[in-house]
Design a protein that fits this description.
The chain has about 425 residues and is α+β, with helices and mostly antiparallel strands. About 15% of the residues lie in helices and about 35% in strands. It has 7 helices and 23 strands. The strands form 4 sheets. Strands 1, 2, 9, 10, 11, 12, 13, 14 and 15 form a 9-stranded mixed beta sheet that branches. Strand 11 and strand 12 form a beta hairpin.
């Protein structure tokens, strides 16, 4: 089976090594999803999934608490309200959720399962209680096979679909989408985001149902959420439910093929399985608040979704221009924490330190970039952008992403022992 991996851009406008984890992307019976492993998440989260029926049963069994005068048991209105909201949200969103099918010409005498795939091992097979059977050798004639799958959701009535970049990473593969009603369409990849795990497919259709986008900045820990996706590449539009387990997580997810810096992601205990990648994480109002992207295979029910607010501007640019238009500054940096400041004798406990990456090719300043033209240098510290202090709640990447190419920003910079203001005109990222 063809193994899908995140594509690393040749240059990133930012670099934040917060938590080093491993994102393993692959295909199982047409299912693909990110798997994240990290010792940080060695505990077990989400032992109880907030199932309305299970919750109702638990309340009902309390002695006499919910008995009518005739002795019959009743379900508390609050439980029924959440159950009704859940079914209404799913009913509203499901028609706009699609299964993404990945096909490729594979020689018949070659197993369609990649022997190096993380899904082709005893642990994975035991965990999911399933294992695809390799195709037996017969001839060397290539035949098109389904080698993977994922999920997407429709954002325009004429067929623009959002998914994860790692779902459509194989440039040699063919893609199609299947709607909830079973209709299938050939799909074309129209854009892959160089900065984030986001990509866009387009199908030729009209009058399609679309999702509503919510406000991911307003999500709260403990809030009920629902994930919809092509679970295990077998069960289309599968629905799971849970809560927001954490917000503002920053992880570096990668494999041998590259890595993705995922910032301020949403953590949830709603079950996300292989095949859910690219699907929507929604609230009880039926609004998309995130894109399901990765799970932690070391723990239980530890999943991550990209906040939808990180993607809204990208969606608008693809709608308007047919491509991803992103502003960029052109610096590689690390966020300054109290611990980092102490270990490196930095004069500030906030801001970002401009620094090169782990290899000689990962320069601190991109040649010809707005940062380079403005005179920023390695080891400078950017303290604020347009008066907004850069800290755990305000990242440089997020603030730049709110702008457009051509916008002017004012940076407060610590440069060679002195603070100064630097005005920079943002440019369009050249490879978008």
């Amino acid at each position: 089976m063809e193994k899908e991996k995140p594509i690393s851009a040749s240059w990133r406008g930012y670099f934040i090594p917060i938590i080093i984890v491993s994102l393993i992307v692959g295909a199982l019976s047409g299912g693909i999803a990110g798997l994240v492993s990290a010792s940080l998440f060695s505990g077990s989260l989400g032992q109880w999934i907030n199932n309305p029926l299970g919750l109702a049963k638990k309340i009902i069994t309390l002695p006499n608490q919910n008995q009518n005068t005739n002795g019959s048991l009743t379900v508390p209105p609050k439980v029924l309200d959440e159950e009704s909201a859940t079914t209404a949200a799913v009913t509203h969103v499901s028609p706009a959720v699609v299964s993404v099918v990945i096909s490729k010409e594979v020689s018949q005498n070659t197993n369609i399962i990649d022997p190096n795939s993380p899904f082709n091992n005893d642990f994975f097979n035991q965990f999911f209680n399933t294992a695809p059977t390799p195709q037996q050798p017969s001839s060397g004639t290539p035949q098109k096979q389904v080698v993977g799958g994922g999920t997407g959701f429709i954002v325009t009535s004429d067929g623009l679909i959002v998914t994860n970049k790692h779902v459509v990473a194989d440039t040699a593969a063919d893609y199609s989408v299947v709607r909830n009603d079973g209709k299938s369409y050939p799909a074309k990849v129209v854009a892959r985001d160089p900065f984030n795990d986001v990509a866009f497919l387009k199908i030729e259709a009209s009058g399609l149902p679309t999702v509503s986008l919510g406000d991911s900045d307003k999500v709260q820990v403990g809030q009920t959420v629902i994930a919809i996706g092509f679970s295990l590449g077998e069960y289309s539009n599968s629905v799971t439910k849970g809560i927001i387990s954490g917000i503002g997580r920053s992880i570096v997810a990668g494999s041998s093929g590259g890595s993705e810096n995922l910032q301020n992601v949403i953590q949830t205990d709603a079950a996300i399985n292989p095949g859910n990648s690219g699907g929507p994480l929604i609230n009880l109002q039926g609004q998309v608040i995130g894109i399901n992207t990765a799970i932690n295979q070391s723990g239980q029910l530890v999943g991550f979704a990209l906040p939808i607010n990180q993607v809204k501007q990208v969606i608008q640019s693809v709608k308007a221009t047919g491509k991803i238009v992103r502003p960029y500054l052109g610096v590689r940096y690390v966020a300054i924490t109290e611990d980092l400041a102490g270990k490196n004798n930095l004069p500030y406990k906030y801001g970002v330190l401009i620094t090169r990456g782990q290899t000689s090719s990962e320069l601190a300043i991109m040649p010809g970039s707005p940062a380079n033209l403005a005179g920023l240098e390695e080891n400078d510290i950017i303290l604020s952008i347009n008066g907004i202090k850069l800290d755990a709640d305000h990242s440089l990447a997020d603030e730049v992403a709110k702008k457009k190419p051509g916008d002017s920003i004012k940076l407060r910079v610590y440069h060679k022992g002195q603070e100064k203001d630097v005005t920079i005109i943002l440019a369009e990222y050249p490879n978008s």
